[in-house]
């Protein structure tokens, strides 16, 4: 059947849009997580919305799975084609559709990456601030409701999305919002399609807000004796009402990995990294207030990155963190992504650090403490079942504790394969209603099957 | 049947929770709009979630309509019980459930009003910023995705809601979010229940973000020769990236009404009202920058409200605007609520002002120009069919033009009865999917029937 469908696609859409070359099947079998790989039957490269409509109509008719694939930088296996079938690759749909600088707004195709988007708008004094670290595709970022280091200021993708064009399983093309900055019209489809991980429809256009590039950016960092004190300090900064651009916690072990991997020489202690951005006077004042607060709390090693080189090094180091761990040979990483109310952060961070230490594997605690979201990252030997089980146990303990504290099992990576098992614990009876919504939009279950819910 | 249900409710829930007294039926037959009144069969006053569950189970079993009623301050008839049945009044569910100042978060019952909420949190240095003018109930504000003068800074209710407890038509009690500041877990139910106007479920608890009370607040106003120039000036301020607290346009006719009604003596010209809020130095700097920008654009009558009395007068006048028009005897008001991309605002405002002038009735143009949302308000004689038709024609022209420009027919009042006819123009095929979602959650159509969609 898959074979037949492939030939139908080739016939109706053109041979050059379909591939089952070995290297393509390999590339589309995985993402940056360590979830088990699975190859699609073939890869389809749509060039416009109409191509997507045609493929979905065929796939829906024949009951073949369709799994969208952006940049492959996901961390929860969202783009792995669990039921094989078609991998829908958006490399060729990476154009600007409409740019409206006067409205601080742009519409792009989903295959455009975050850096491509910024390259395009930066020269107009604008930027798109959501920054998950990787050069993810905009479509993938919408699908997982990605965020990252700037969420403390700009929220998640959901806060930036004004409108989506989505192709549904039956071929319907709908818009989920409008170009107005706010609306009370109809049900908020933007909200449910953002973060739906390709399970409700396939995103073919994305309209997002843009922001003015801040006139001045200033970075700083300091250290504390324990990760708990770092989290407490982060809480104090937030309560002060200062509008940070970024505030990150990186524990001593992670600093050590970054120093080794990247040839940096940061003090190997539990650290807070700050970024302030805005007009020069305001930024200076904010940095001074935070410096004073940190000293009152007993911080060590307060240091401002004065040059733009120093600043970029500082944040480059933070972004390289996950990769820094990956230089450890023979190991793969397993990560958690919990997010809790800010007042519970210190407790969670201490708990996370203790779990990592107890398990005897190398790992770190770091994350976007400005919004209560942080990660543990533990390196394990994928051929060693015991090590794998240890990491899974830790991830489970973290997820369930976060949920018990009123938080979530995933702040920004999404559910994919790794967080399915915590959905009922987190959402209770609402999960049944989410599954009913899935059935409503995709009655044959062709859209990214075996993801999000059991 | 309704009679039988009322006795069942009395029996199962207590006599004192049910009323069909004349004055109660009258009060629950209307809101602040001029949509036709309709009385419910009886009014039910739940005291907790369990009461709501029991009533919905009974109503669903017997197919009786249930229409939630908050403060009755809606502007689109959302709380009018079109199919009679039960009006669900939340006066007795107005308590604080959980207050977490350290997390800038509070959970309240839906009957608590905006001012009650602020009374409670203000003494802790916190406030809830969404301000639709009226002292609406929090539940009603969630249901309509309300916003108002502070949306330019804080967005709409949807941006402030972290979690809702909702009772569904079948009696299921679900939570739509969590207490984490961000989440990528599950479908974003917060988004669809906020703004669903009681058509998908009944809100029984609301968790919202709180914010620190700004240290300093500064107000100012200026005038321009035309409403178009006001809108252009608003656009320039927004593009400057300055974080305003409020920015409102009030046209000359509306200033005249406010002066007459409230004994003010504002210059009777097309005006922009500003509010800046934050730490004192920053606020001073922001006001100076805007003052300079306005003078460059040729504004007249720039004036700062220096004392807190002056400032409160200025904003009191703005809030009294809709009521100011209502002192015109024998007339009722008809309003539009469009929201467009910022660059289209000047065009829309000029268009709106022209329509008002052409129609020969008294009316004004004013609104939250910081987010592209503005209102026309036209006074007509409800016994004069021709006048009524004129206002409807104007509302229709405004809605359709806003939609054609990429905007929405309702920025903050909601759909209710008045904007149903523009849903297909705005949302196209997506309306069918919204209706399917309605059927999914409320298969018997008991929840606020005959609203939002035909």
UniProtKB/TrEMBL annotation, chains A, B:
Domain FAD-binding PCMH-type, chain residue ranges per copy: 36-213
GO MF, any single term: D-lactate dehydrogenase (NAD+) activity
Gene Ontology biological-process entries: lactate catabolic process
Keyword terms of this UniProt record: FAD, Flavoprotein, Oxidoreductase, Transit peptide
Cofactor dependence: FAD
Keyword Lipid metabolism: no
Domain of life, per lineage: Bacteria
Keyword NADP: no
Family of this protein: Belongs to the FAD-binding oxidoreductase/transferase type 4 family.
Protein name as catalogued: D-lactate dehydrogenase (cytochrome)
């Amino acid at each position: 059947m898959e074979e037949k469908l492939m030939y139908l696609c080739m016939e109706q859409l053109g041979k050059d849009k379909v591939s089952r070359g070995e290297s393509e099947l390999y590339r589309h079998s995985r993402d940056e997580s360590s979830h088990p790989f699975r190859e699609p039957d073939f890869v389809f490269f749509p060039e416009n919305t109409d191509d997507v409509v045609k493929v979905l109509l065929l796939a829906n008719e024949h009951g073949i799975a369709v799994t969208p694939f952006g940049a492959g930088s996901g961390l929860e296996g969202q783009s792995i084609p669990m039921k094989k079938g078609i991998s829908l690759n958006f490399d060729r749909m990476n154009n600007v559709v409409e740019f409206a600088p006067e409205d601080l707004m742009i519409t792009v195709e989903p295959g455009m990456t975050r850096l491509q988007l910024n390259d395009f708008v930066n020269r107009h004094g604008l930027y798109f601030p959501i920054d998950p670290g990787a050069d993810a595709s905009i479509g993938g970022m919408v699908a997982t409701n990605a965020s990252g280091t700037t969420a403390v200021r700009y929220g998640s993708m959901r806060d930036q999305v004004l409108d989506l064009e989505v192709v549904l399983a039956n071929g319907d093309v709908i818009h989920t919002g409008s170009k107005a900055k706010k609306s009370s019209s109809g049900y908020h489809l933007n909200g449910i399609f953002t973060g739906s991980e390709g399970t409700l429809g396939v995103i073919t256009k994305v309209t997002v807000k843009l922001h003015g590039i801040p006139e001045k950016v200033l970075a700083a960092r300091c250290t504390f004796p324990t990760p708990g004190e770092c989290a407490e300090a982060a809480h104090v900064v937030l309560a002060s009402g200062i509008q940070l651009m970024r505030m990150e916690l990186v524990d001593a072990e992670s600093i050590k990995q970054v120093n080794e991997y990247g040839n940096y020489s940061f003090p190997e202690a539990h650290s807070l990294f700050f970024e302030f951005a805005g007009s020069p006077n305001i930024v200076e004042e904010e940095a001074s207030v935070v410096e004073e607060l940190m000293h009152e709390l007993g911080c060590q090693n307060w240091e401002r990155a004065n040059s733009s080189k120093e600043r970029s090094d500082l944040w480059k180091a933070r972004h390289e963190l996950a990769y820094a761990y990956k230089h450890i040979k023979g190991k793969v990483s397993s990560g958690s992504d919990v997010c809790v109310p800010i007042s519970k952060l210190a407790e969670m961070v201490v708990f996370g650090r203790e779990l990592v230490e107890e398990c005897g594997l190398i790992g770190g605690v770091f994350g976007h403490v400005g919004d209560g979201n942080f990660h543990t990252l533990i390196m394990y030997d994928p051929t060693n079942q015991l090590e794998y089980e240890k990491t899974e146990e830790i991830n489970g303990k973290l997820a369930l504790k976060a949920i018990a504290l009123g938080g979530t099992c995933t702040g920004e990576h999404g559910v994919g394969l790794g967080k399915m098992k915590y959905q009922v614990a987190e959402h209770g009876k609402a999960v049944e209603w989410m599954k009913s919504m899935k059935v409503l939009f995709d009655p044959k279950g062709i859209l990214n099957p075996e993801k999000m819910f059991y």
